[in-house]
């Protein structure tokens, strides 16, 4: 019983930095407001410098994080340019070395998708290999392609080095902020003890000096956000049983999405940042299944599906992901994306079976967002070629710096 009352409530890691900052400043302000007779002068003198140090460290940390984010955007752009290089030169290489020949396979041993699915950890290895193959065939390809790739590799290396340096600076600043936060939390606890002594017969008076912040109890699950008005809907043809996975990256960590697989099984997924986190599922009975994803859809940065024998995927209005990767679904005949998705800069629906009408709608929708510099892969498989307005939308996107690969 006694231990419960000796635990420092201000040292709770579940209280966010912003809430802790607000709680501390509010406490100091209330001490100052009630200090007409100097009763709290010593508490103010002990607490204010610790708060100022902590708040300053938060400001520096926020700056470091913004610089890191800027460098991350630079690296992401370099990654995108390398992927565009691999897909954009596929036609050139196939012209000189017919697709399916041994020489062509040196460039694309696992197809262009190997490069499109690369990440920051393996992209240098893959493209150094690509560069080595170009060097073997400069007598046919010339030096321009080699020079272009080297420039893109140099840009990635420079950006990645700066990014890793920035990540280290953020981690160092995080550590400094934590030290200063702990010192302030200890002082707040001392202040609480002093106030308990002063107002032992009037507990409500003690509470008046602190902003009430509710945090989760140990073992208590996070409270999920209110359900979204609409859901991501995926249809899977499991007449031939095949495992599926629906993977996500979040804009921020900790938000909840709920996946109902249509067979009575559900998954609660906590969004993470940086890399995809998967939700694999295997059906027991053959049939057609409708999968719905609800919850914090607006917090989804990226969505990826492997070949889950999906026939239809609908991304609802209101979602604004940057990355949609649903390629290599040979049964996929319908893909619907949000007409307000201005964040979108990468769409991979290659290797699917989208008809011309759907291809045209996708191109018209993305063109209507009036954005620039993204990538669209809707080639391969039995995807139809765009027609009419779809061709016009494709050309307009390319004129704004988009890479658009179609059949």
What secondary-structure arrangement, pairings included, does this model have?
Elements: H1 2-6, H2 17-33, H3 41-88, H4 90-96, H5 102-107, H6 113-116, H7 123-136, H8 138-141, H9 144-198, H10 203-207, E1 232-238, E2 244-250, E3 256-260, E4 266-270, E5 280-281, E6 287-295, E7 300-305, E8 310-314, E9 323-325, E10 334-336, E11 346-348, H11 356-368, E12 375-378, H12 389-399, E13 403-406
Helix pairs in contact: 2-3, 3-9, 7-9, 11-12
| CATH classification class of the largest domain | Mainly Alpha
Radius of gyration, taken over Cα atoms and rounded to an integer in Å: 28 Å
Distance between the termini: 71 Å
Major pleated sheet: 7 strands, mixed
Shape category: elongated
Number of domains: 2
Keywords:
six-stranded mixed β-sheet; alpha/beta; seven-stranded mixed β-sheet; 407 residues
Structure description:
About 7% of the residues have low confidence. This protein is of the alpha/beta class and 407 residues long. The radius of gyration is 28 Å and the shape is elongated. It folds into two domains: 209 residues, Ferritin (Up-down Bundle); 175 residues, no CATH class. It contains twelve helices and 13 strands. Helix content is 46%, strand content 15%. Helix 2 runs antiparallel to helix 3. Strands 5-2-7-9-11-12-13 form a seven-stranded mixed sheet, sandwiched between helices. A six-stranded mixed sheet has the order 4-3-6-1-8-10.
């Amino acid at each position: 019983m006694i231990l419960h009352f000796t635990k420092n409530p201000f040292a709770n890691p579940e209280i966010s930095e912003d809430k802790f900052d607000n709680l501390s400043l509010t406490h100091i302000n209330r001490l100052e407001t009630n200090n007409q007779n100097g009763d709290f002068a010593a508490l103010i003198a002990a607490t204010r410098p610790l708060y100022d140090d902590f708040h300053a460290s938060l400001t520096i940390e926020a700056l470091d994080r913004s610089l890191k984010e800027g460098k991350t955007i630079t690296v992401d752009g370099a990654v995108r340019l390398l992927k565009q290089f691999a897909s954009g030169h596929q036609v050139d290489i196939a012209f000189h070395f017919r697709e399916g020949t041994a020489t062509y396979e040196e460039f694309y041993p696992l197809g262009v998708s190997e490069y499109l699915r690369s990440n920051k950890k393996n992209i240098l290895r893959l493209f150094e290999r690509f560069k080595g193959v170009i060097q073997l065939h400069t007598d046919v390809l010339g030096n321009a392609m080699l020079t272009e790739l080297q420039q893109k590799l140099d840009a990635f290396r420079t950006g990645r080095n700066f990014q890793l340096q920035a990540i280290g600076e953020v981690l160092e600043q995080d550590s400094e902020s934590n030290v200063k936060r702990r010192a302030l939390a200890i002082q707040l606890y001392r202040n609480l003890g002093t106030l308990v002594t002063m107002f032992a017969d009037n507990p409500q008076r003690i509470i008046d000096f602190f902003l009430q912040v509710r945090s989760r109890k140990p073992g208590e699950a996070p409270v999920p956000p209110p359900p979204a008005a609409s859901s991501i809907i995926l249809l899977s043809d499991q007449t031939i049983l095949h495992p599926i996975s629906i993977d996500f990256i979040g804009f921020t960590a900790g938000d909840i999405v709920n996946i109902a697989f249509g067979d009575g099984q559900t998954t609660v997924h906590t969004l993470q940042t940086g890399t995809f986190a998967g939700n694999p599922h295997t059906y027991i009975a053959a049939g057609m299944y409708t999968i719905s994803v609800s919850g914090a859809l607006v917090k989804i940065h990226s969505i990826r599906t492997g070949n889950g024998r999906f026939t239809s995927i609908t991304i609802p209005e209101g979602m604004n992901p940057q990355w949609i990767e649903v390629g290599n679904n040979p049964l996929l005949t319908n893909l619907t994306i949000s007409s307000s998705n201005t964040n979108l800069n990468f769409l991979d629906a290659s290797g699917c079976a989208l008809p011309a009408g759907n291809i045209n709608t996708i191109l018209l929708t993305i063109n209507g967002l009036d954005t620039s510099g993204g990538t669209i892969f809707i080639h391969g498989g039995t995807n139809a070629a765009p027609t009419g307005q779809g061709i016009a939308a494709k050309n307009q996107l390319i004129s704004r710096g988009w890479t658009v690969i179609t059949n």
